[in-house]
Amino acid sequence: MSPRLDNHLALDHHLAAAAQRFGTPAYVYFADEIAARLDGLRQAFGRWFAVSYAVKSNPNPALLGWMRAHLDYLDVSSGGEFALSQQAGWDPAWISFTGPAKREVELRRAITANVGELVLESLREARLADAIAAELGRVQPVLIRLAPDRVPKGFGDQMAGRPSAFGVDVEDAADILPQIAALPHLRIIGLHIYSGTQSLKADAICDNWRIFMQVFSDTCAALDLHPEKLIFGSGLGIPYHPGEQALDLAAIAQTIGAELDAFKARFPDARLVLELGRYLVGPAGYFVTQVVSVKQSRGSRIAICDGGLNNNLAASGNFGMVLRRNYVMHRVDRDPSDACETLPHDISGPLCTSIDKLGGAVALPRLDEGDLLAIHAAGAYGPTASPLHFISHPLPVEVMVLGGQLQDITRLLGETG
Ligand SMILES: Cc1ncc(COP(=O)(O)O)c(C=O)c1O
């Protein structure tokens, strides 16, 4: 739990109030916590980097709207995310558009709307974008996404350093980039790398940024490119499981600061941007589910809840994890007198499949029917990264807590009941 949300009573008061007013299963997002996390990022890295928020991590429209006053840029990865961002009031000029399989219709909409930059991931995409820009009589600013040939150990998800769908492999850059540079209706204004994410290892993050700086320097020299923007995919991870330690941003800044200073001096006209999603929103969100039934089965106490992997796939261990491990979770209590004996519980969702399991042998105060369970680190890759329609249970509500006030910001309205 973050230091700012470690006041259990205050936290549980909001979680219980959200469940009571809007129902469960519920995602509850604390906007003030997102703001505090952003402050932390700016304090540690603000002298080098602006911050770009990856919409994929949580595209809730109300959050995107709130972010307008806080974030520098957005990165979208589909025409759908681009439309959501525009509807939330974002000026397309502040949006970059990544994604390895951009379709013609998405490129056309983005170019027509004056997207800030297309982040090109292939020659195919560059030619298509050039043809569309030519038709519209425009020159479209682009960044080129590069895939380095190595990613240090310690990233939960690796997008380069091996065969990968993402970006132009650095080995092919000398061949492909000049061809993109020659397209008359595109203007290369910079480069982009997102090669790994969910790292809790400060050294791995620093090593990865060193690789980025090397790749950016080499590529700019080879292309004679004077970049206006260089995007660093942060890779910053968050603790999900008991015992994991949050990153110390100040220590990262301390370790790599001198190198970033030198890099910035080498590219004085380039805006350096840190692109990230989960670091900002993940720990600011909780998934609240209610115990529907408790079963004592062959020595195990099983709490069966109204939301499971259908709502929170990641917590069930089925979103890119090799092994399921319990997320941090707690029973939502209203006051200290709720304290009672702690027992191991298995936590199941409502689905008729044995993989719908949110916890195994979790030590929790005794759960009974009607109790609320809060799963932590649920602010990123939640509802939109889950198979919401599987077995047709109600969709989760989404609640934003801002200045102590609760607001229903549910995006995905479905059948309830
Ligand atoms: C291009 C790109 N940008 C940003 C992100 C966001 O990553 P995270 O939410 O882990 O910060 C990803 C994650 O896969 C990505 O592929």
Automatic annotation (TrEMBL):
PTM-bearing positions, type N6-(pyridoxal phosphate)lysine: K56
The UniProt entry's GO biological process terms, in alphabetical order, are: lysine biosynthetic process via diaminopimelate
| GO MF term list | diaminopimelate decarboxylase activity
What sections of the sequence does the record tag as coiled-coil? none
UniProt cofactor(s): pyridoxal 5'-phosphate
UniProt KW keywords: Pyridoxal phosphate
Matching entries from InterPro entries are given as: Ala_racemase/Decarboxylase_C, De-COase2_N, Orn/DAP/Arg_de-COase, PLP-binding_barrel
Q: Which residues form the active site?
A: C352 (proton donor)
Which residue intervals define the domain Orn/DAP/Arg decarboxylase 2 N-terminal in the entry? 32-281
Tell me if RNA-binding is a UniProt keyword of this record. Answer: no
Pfam families with a match to the protein in the record: Orn_Arg_deC_N (PF02784)
Return the protein name: Type III PLP-dependent enzyme
Q: Which organism is it from?
A: Paracoccus shanxieyensis
